[in-house]
Amino acid sequence: MSKIVIIFGAGCSVASGAPLMNNFIDKGDKLAYDNPDSIDIQSFNLVKKARQELQRGSIKSNIDIHNIEDFFTAFELASVFGQLGDLDQSNIDNLSIAMKKFIIQTIENSITYKLEKGFIRPHSEFNTIANFIHSLLDKKSSKIFRK
Prior knowledge:
By secondary structure, the chain is mainly α. It has helices spanning about 25-35, 40-55, 70-80, 90-110, 125-145; strands at about 115, 120. The chain has a two-stranded antiparallel ribbon. Helix 2 (about 40-55) packs across helix 4 (about 90-110) and helix 3 (about 70-80) runs antiparallel to helix 4 (about 90-110). The longest helix has 23 residues, at about 125-145. The radius of gyration is 20 Å and the shape is elongated. The mean pLDDT is about 85.
């Protein structure tokens, strides 16, 4: 078995249209505005409402309300403590699920694929990454056989 581990960051999917941390919220909001029928609009609205509650309290905290990781963490903490601004308990209880739907559906609706001769193909940047990995594996294999 290979001992090589390759970890990809979100940047690998940008060429496909996937959002990054700095534009994730904007993409989700635009999706809710442009294509409300393609998402769970109740979840998106709950996330927006909870973000507004965080924004009201952000004067007293270090939460970056434009960073999806920061407010996802804040939402998780809200469910532990049972409080987030003026949100009622049922909204707080549903916030974690709503946030997960916001993330999943924003990604699913942002990524595009190329259709080529009836086949779905990755963007060319993925070929560059695949070729790089292939070259690493070739170098590793050649070292193994030279011993």
